Amino acid sequence: MRKLQPSDLLPLERYARERPEFRTRIIEHKRARQLQVGPDMTWSFEDRLTMQYQVQEILRAERIFEEAGVIQELEAYNPLIPDGRNFKVTLLIEYPDAVIRREFLAKLKGVEDRCWMRVAGFEPAFAIADEDLERENEEKTSAVHFLRFEFSPEAVQSALAGGALAAGVDHPAYRFSLDPMPDLNRQALIQDFLL
Question: Model's pTM, two decimal places?
């Protein structure tokens, strides 16, 4: 997928006018790109459109309009756009109660490295997690992680030809899988393999 350029972004005034329509569009787009993996984890699969929305929202919130600031945001978010052989995921660990959340984040240390995806007939691809910075300390893991799943050219071709996708977590404190994942998600995600 092509990375975002400054010319792909709307000026702040125009974005303010078009924001309601864009938000409606992005909510619908994200619906097929979110996967509930067990009761307490959501995987949000990022792509060019989700990152465009994220950058537009940051520029709006922080009133960034100078080119240097725009480029800085693009440099931060462009790495989350898939490149035709991978999926990029924002992993959210969701425990609403703060006490329970603290307890489970301690139990889930290393969970980000135990997330996997598989194309039917191929070995699972385990996540490459948090390439930008460490999100775990001696006491607990973070509630948010950024994951990358890399696939061989053969696995990509198989998925594009109709091969089922599966996803899961294989951690001693959290084991869940979707095998196969719902077709709605699969249809949305294989678009990330098209350049």
Answer: 0.90
